[in-house]
Amino acid sequence: MTRQPWRVAVVGGGIAGLAAAVRLRDRAPAGTEITVYEQSGALGGKLRTGELAGQPVEFGAESFLMRDPTGAESAAVALARRLGLAERIVHPTVGQAALVVDGGLRPIPGGTLVGVPGDLDRVATVARPAADADTDGGRPLVGPDEDVSVGALVRSRFGDEVVDRLVDPMLGGVYAGRADDLSLVTTMPALARTARVEHTLVGAVRAAQAAAPRVPGAPVFGTLVGGLSTLVEAAVTASGATVRRDAAVRELTATGTGWRLTVGPTRDPELVDVDAVVLAVPARPAARLLAGAAPAVAAGVGALDYASVALVTMALPQPRLPELSGFLVPSTEGLLIKAATFFTTKWGHLRRPDGLAVVRASVGRYGEESQLQRPDADLAATVHRELSAVLGTPLPAPVDGHVQRWGGALPQYAPGHADRLAAARTALRAAHPTVALAGAGYDGVGIPVCVRSGETAAEEIITALGGSAR
Ligand SMILES: Cc1cc2nc3c(=O)[nH]c(=O)nc-3n(C[C@H](O)[C@H](O)[C@H](O)COP(=O)(O)OP(=O)(O)OC[C@H]3O[C@@H](n4cnc5c(N)ncnc54)[C@H](O)[C@@H]3O)c2cc1C
């Protein structure tokens, strides 16, 4: 067992890194010195609660899934509970969202898995499935070790319209990417499992739905009163970690007994020796940091590409909005907006007596980064114009607004990602068990998955240092 107290560095102060820090505090030996290094001036990464018109508004992630794919409480809910925030969890008051189809709004049909229907009749209002393409060919849809893109699978069974009008905008709402580029195994693991058994896509969707039945009336999403930054602040406090803001870790060198971190500006670097490292940064900085100690792992990890997005939020005085949580826009509609959320309609706790509405639009799709070169005012004006057109009514001028740019923020898990990652992790564990990877670059993009990956990384470090998880 490593000499005590252990010194563990958590590199990256996003939710994955902070979840790792909390888990280390809970399960590593008492007295373990935990330091979180965050390159920016603020913790939370993609969780950032700002303020607009005097009210907290999410400038990054907005909500989390309440359940994990098995139906159990999600890791985000469990973390909120651990941090004493369970009482703050609230759910959308309006859950119905719409799709833009031929310039107008149509309700998103229910009963799909991220847009992939288990009942073709139910999606007929927005897309015509290809006739009789989903026939039983006498073998499972996907081979035992195979990964395909979601788009390729769904196109081959249901035709283009179901992908272009339903699956693509729904996956794009999460990843800002294209269904044709995204891995089935990583972005839709439940469907990937059943597609290895079932002979039709309808059968695979139904089997996936049956494996994790939804409890009628149980909320799917939650957020926290006061904003998701309250989760970040509570995690920092509970971890008891030393927090170093504006402290980029630029190099990671194996010392034989642990790791040497090079922190801060090149002109005036600080060298810090630790016993173990949780690397909770996006894939590219992780690859740069691993390049010296584990070049093959770095190459595997660094292959992941990212999409950039911008979020345009505006406070509108008493606009006429439909009773919807928001809408998604298929790329075939030719709009800049990818998705819009009517915050003050969707979340009852955000409704205002003065009727001021907060609307947020997301712009930017993978491969269309040039659109994000426009100045803030141009993006905001285009969003305002497009929102008015989709809603069929001119919206009032905003009384407040904010443009948040998230460069290289959303991982684009290509087919084969899970295998590449498994190989990289196995190699890293074998060569350097005192470094563990965590965060959205690996197992999935959602907050619960990132929390879980941070917690798992913390437990790997505890095992590697020779402790037993308390
Ligand atoms: C616009 C947007 C909306 C989203 N909405 C939702 C949502 O509603 N629900 C949901 O579940 N998920 C959502 N997501 C996804 C989710 O928020 C993220 O996947 C998750 O927060 C990522 O957490 P993380 O800790 O892995 O990484 P990050 O949040 O990226 O944190 C990594 C941190 O590492 C720091 N860092 C990087 N390099 C270094 C270095 N060398 N040294 C020190 N620090 C470094 C970064 O500054 C950053 O703070 C959204 C994502 C985006 C971009």
From TrEMBL:
Annotated ranges, domain Amine oxidase: 15-462
Pathway listed: Porphyrin-containing compound metabolism; protoheme biosynthesis
Catalytic activity as recorded in UniProt: coproporphyrinogen III + 3 O2 = coproporphyrin III + 3 H2O2
Cofactors that this protein relies on: FAD
Location in the cell: Cytoplasm
GO MF, one annotated term: oxygen-dependent protoporphyrinogen oxidase activity
Main localisation: cytoplasm
Top-level taxon of the source organism: Bacteria
Assigned EC number: 1.3.3.15
Pfam family, one: Amino_oxidase
SUPFAM superfamilies with a match to the protein in the record: FAD-linked reductases, C-terminal domain, FAD/NAD(P)-binding domain
Keyword Kinase: no
InterPro entries: Amino_oxidase, FAD/NAD-bd_sf, Protoporphyrinogen_oxidase, Zeta_carotene_desat/Oxidored
Record's keyword terms, sorted: Cytoplasm, FAD, Flavoprotein, Heme biosynthesis, Oxidoreductase
EC category: oxidoreductase
PANTHER family in alphabetical order: PROTOPORPHYRINOGEN OXIDASE
Family named by the database record: Belongs to the protoporphyrinogen/coproporphyrinogen oxidase family. Coproporphyrinogen III oxidase subfamily.
Primary role: Involved in coproporphyrin-dependent heme b biosynthesis. Catalyzes the oxidation of coproporphyrinogen III to coproporphyrin III.
Record protein name field: Coproporphyrinogen III oxidase
